[in-house]
Structures are given as C-alpha cells and as structure tokens.
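no rush on this but wanted to send it before i forget. theres a chain ive been looking at and ive put its sequence and its fold in token form underneath. i want to understand how the tokens follow from the sequence so walk me through it. thanks a lot i owe you, the record is right below:
>
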Amino acid sequence: MPQKNTERKPKRWRQHPALPALLAALLAFVMVLANHSWSKFYTGSWDGYSELLAVGRITQLQQGQGAPGGFLGVYTAEWGDGDGYALLKDNTPQNPEDYKSYVHQSGLQGTLEGGLARALCRVPSLSGEGRLNVLYFVNCWLFYLLAVRLCLALAGHYGPGAGLGALAAVWFAPWLTMGAKNLYWVLWTWLLPCCAGLALAKRMRKTGKLSNWALAGVFAAVLVRCLCGFEYITTILILCEIPLAVCWLEQLSPGRRRWFTAMLNTGMAGIFAVLTALAVWLGQCTVYYSSFARALQEVGGIALARAGGAAVEGDAASALTAQLGAGQVLQKYALAPEPQLQLGPVGVAVMPVLALGAVLAGAALVWALVQRKFRQPRGLCGLWVLGLAAPLSWMLLSKGHSYVHPHLTPMLWSFALLPCTAALLGWWCQILVQKFLFRKEIHS
C-alpha cells in the first residue's frame, strides 16, 4: 500500500484586510513629514486668493458664528484680502454682518474645517499658527492617504513597478504637494470618487455582483466632492470610472457586459450625486435670497456658464467659454512650450509627456501581440487614455474657466496625466527588469 504523506505543508501567510489601509496611513504620514514642516509649509502656497474664502468661513465657525445660507464667508474689505489669515490666527472677534457670502458653491469644506478649528480652540497650548498648520496637516494627510491607497491598488494589480511609478509622481510633484494643503480646493475630495470606484470594482471581482452599497458609496463620494465645489467635475467623474473601465478592458467577451453595465450604473450614481448637490446649492440660495426664482437664476446661470452656455453678466470666465474655440485652449495648454509639469527639479511641457505616454502605450500593445498577453496591456493603455481625457474634458467643456485660471492647469495635468504616465513607465521598467533577471538566471 502506498504510504500516506504525513509531511506538513507550510502555512501560507494571508494578508489581513486592514493591512493595506494601515500601510497607506503610515506612508501618508511619512509623505507629509517629508514634504512639509510644522513651522511653515516650505513648499509655499498655491491659490491663496481662493483659499481666503475658506479662511473667512473657518474664522466665523471657530467663533460660533454662521454665514447666511451656509456658504463660505468672504471679508467685505476685498475678496482675497490677505488680512484674513491674521484674523484667523488671532481669532479676532467678527460680526456676521462683516461678511459677504460666496454663492457660487455650497462650501462644505469651510464648514468641516471650521468645525475642526473650533474644536482646536479648546486646546489652550495651541496657537493660531498651530491651528492653521493642523488644518493643513489633516488635508495633506487625507490626500496622501487616498493617493497611496490607489497606488497600492495599482501595485497589487499590475505589479510594484506601476505602483511605485504612480507613487513617485504623487510624492515628488510640487503642484500636488502645494495643492494638497489648500483649504479651499481640498484635493483629497478629488480622489474620493476614484477610491469609491475602486472599492466597487474590488467588490465586483470578489462577488461577481454589483453591490448597491458600493453604488451608494460612489454617490456619497461624488456628492461630497460637489458640495466642496463643482470645478473640474468632469475630471472627477472620469477618474471615478477608471477602475471599472480597466476591469472591463481586461475581461474576455463573456464577462465584459457585466462590467460595462457596472460602468453605466456608476456613471448614473455619479450624475445623480451631481444633481443632488445642485439641489442643495439651490436650496441654500433660496434661503439666502428668500426667492426661489432668484436662486434658480443664480444657480442655473453659473452652472450653464461653466458648461459653455450663455455667459453670466460680469463673469469673464463664462464670457470666454462662449467665445473660445477648442483649438485655442489646446494650443494654450497642451501645445504650449512652457513647462506645465514638474517632477522634482525637472520641469517639462505637456507634449513630451504626451509623446512618452503614447510611445509606451503603443509599445505595450506591440508587446501584447508578440507575447499574446493582452489583459494587462489593454488595461494600462486604457488607464493612460482616461488619465489624459480627465483633464482635457474640463479644459474643453469649461474653456473660459481654464483660460482665466492658468495657475490651476498644471495642477490638473499633475493630478491625472502624470501619475498614469508614470504608472505605465514603471510597468515597463518592471517588465525589463524581469526579463533581465530571467536571462541572467539562465546563463548562470
């Protein structure tokens, strides 16, 4: 009789589900310490003019005051008045009548940050400068936390090369480092929908079904983003679809319909969240103006102007949106020879990055034909194409807004195109290293 094999097999180590989240939290903390200092965030400020909207609202809330309609506060002296920082740090008492309301968005970020600032006022040893730095730290840590989580997902799906490439593009991009702390733009809310889309995709891969709870997460993530501002909303919605689009591209014919349906449902959840945020904004304006007709005129005018509709009187951005052509916008941003992307000390124009990404994507498709391995190359090429489409969508939809705010455009390129290109480059480096090591082992 054959003897029974009694040899014990080694136990296979299983990754705890909380490990990626813990690793992301620790690495995000390291990134904050590496890129910033407590005394003064040495990377400088980015769009301090808009940030003062949130500063005014925070100053109100930490004193227990409220702006009419729940909007961000604006000092009456001048919109963008730099004295707002001093008033925030000194916690100078203000009257509600001293503020004007900025009615072009809901201002959830100012409300959340103001609530945290009011809680920090209870810490007697914490100065006004310290409170401001804590707010900066929280915004930076949340942004890096979500960004690292997405990079870990790339590493788990495509290998460490893709994850490290995207992580380097986030870690060493000065535009993202500066923007991560901004109290008005709150970049971590830009990543929320993409992380919600990733969670939905992971749930589908595990269960094979589209979860209503996962769709609710997408709705909540997009809603939070829109309540903090509708700028670049097309960019955010495209990023939300990337995890599902990648899975759809990588599937064989029998399973692609299921992923395509999930993409449609996710898009509908995102659009429903945008409409819900518009309804909240409309309700705030109705309370503020005491007139639904006046509120509808305000909300409808600004929303349509951003999407290329009729220009709002006195709004230069909406007037330009109706006048500019798509070619003029592309020439100013995509074809401009001036550096608009930066990684560490190296600054480059957009076209070299586009050319590099196109070459890498084309080479991936050729490699797929030769190796007959189509799954990963298709997904990576789709990742890069959508990473390019995300910033372009807003530039072409809201042409005037991009044209009037050129300082925001480098952030938009760095936010989507640069990490996707770096992930593709990292994947290629990983393939080449594997080939080199494999050949070395054969010869040895």
